[in-house]
Amino acid sequence: MIMALKDYVVRRTFIALPTLFAISVIVFTIIHAAPGDPFQFFLGFNPRVSMETIEFLREKYHLNDPIWVQYISWLKMLLSGNMGYSFITHRAVSDAIMIRVPNTVKLVLTAELIAILLAIPLGTISAVKEGGIVDNISRVISLLGVSMPSFWLGILLILLFAVRLNLLPTCGSHTTGMVYSSTWESIKDQIYHLILPAMTLGYLRTAYLTRLLRSSLLDVLSKDYIMTARMKGLKERVVIYKHALRNALLPFVTAIGLAFGFLLSGAVLIETVFAWPGMGRLIVDATFTRDYPVIMGTTMMTAVMVVLANLITDIVYAFLDPRITYD
Questions:
Q1: Within 13 A of 125's CA, how many CA atoms are on the CB side?
Q2: Which residues lie across from 172 on neighbouring strands?
Q3: In angstroms, rounded to a whole number, what is the distance separating the alpha carbons of residues 269 and 115?
């Protein structure tokens, strides 16, 4: 089992490499094809900067080279473990990313945990009690969640819980300038700041996962082996949770892994609305300032995280369904 798992991980890694390479080529081409560059951006904010200075900087950072020359240079640097330096802050891109990644992972995992804890009972009850009060309420809530833009929901939650009720902070990951008396005080402050963005992203995921699990469980409950289990006299709880729900969770687990990219993209809007210092805000800021090294670094880091999430999903999938092997 362990050897088969190792071989499977190696095979998936070799399959992922061409995908990551293609992503890098596409993103590199698109951002360089867009009008303007970081130094023209500087010129717009500081008219006193001369065109000679701009041209000197473009030459210094090889922006006048053909795009394929720039890409090969960037790729060689990446393969050597160096993501380059920001054109704007002159800091190492890897340092900027490593500071932001924990915040984004914290937000995404918390939102997904909220979604899973709510979607499993809601989806199960909705399927078992099809047409009941809980089913109708969960379907309405799910429909609203699927239809509602994330940034609009975030603004509504800010207005309600932060502005009107004054229960939670509006932005950031911690209280600026606050001196904590203990580690617990620091953790508690971070949790308070995490609640609203995690609730926003988690509700949208809950809506989708609830609908998915309900549909999957209804399909499983109509299968012949479920009818056979009931005819044998098994308790309904055993039939639902031991036989039906386990098989119904297969597409549910797949959706969790495949949606990691969706969560990261959704985090871009959520982090912007709540001023959450994560990868999303870093990508937005880098895009507006045409900071090419930061854009490429964050894009590749996001792509690697999505590939890893899909790999973990495949492994969990095999544990849930014994018919699936790593061969």
A1: 13
A2: none
A3: 18
Q: What pLDDT was estimated at residue 96?
A: 87
Alpha-carbon span 320 to 172, nearest angstrom? 39
User: Are 88 and 291 spatial neighbours (Cβ–Cβ below 8 Å)?
Assistant: yes
Mean pLDDT of the region 116-123: 87
The three-state secondary structure class of 228 is: helix
Domains defined for the chain, CATH in brackets: 2-79 (no CATH), 100-320 (1.10.3720.10)
Task: Count other Cβ atoms within 10 Å, centred on residue 62.
Answer: 12
Terminal-to-terminal C-alpha distance of the chain: 10
Give burial (CB, 10 Å; 0-12/13-18/19+) of 327.
exposed
Which single residue is written with the structure tokens 């239809």?
147
Confidence of residue 277 (pLDDT cuts 50, 70, 90): confident
pTM of the complete model: 0.77
What is the Cα–Cα distance from 139 to 102, expressed in whole angstroms? Answer: 34
Tokens of 247: 């098989």
Residue labelled with tokens 């911690």: 174
Cα 26 → chain centroid: 20
- SS3 (DSSP) at 215: helix
Residue with tokens 């006048």: 64
Please give the pLDDT value at position 219. Answer: 82
**3-state DSSP call for residue 85?**
strand
Radius of gyration of the chain (CA): 24
Q: How far is CA 157 from CA 168, 179, 197, 200, 273, in A?
A: 10, 27, 9, 8, 11
Q: Which is nearest to 104 in space by CA: 307, 257, 259, 267?
A: 267
Q: What integer is the mean pLDDT of 221-225?
A: 76
Count of residues for the chain? 327
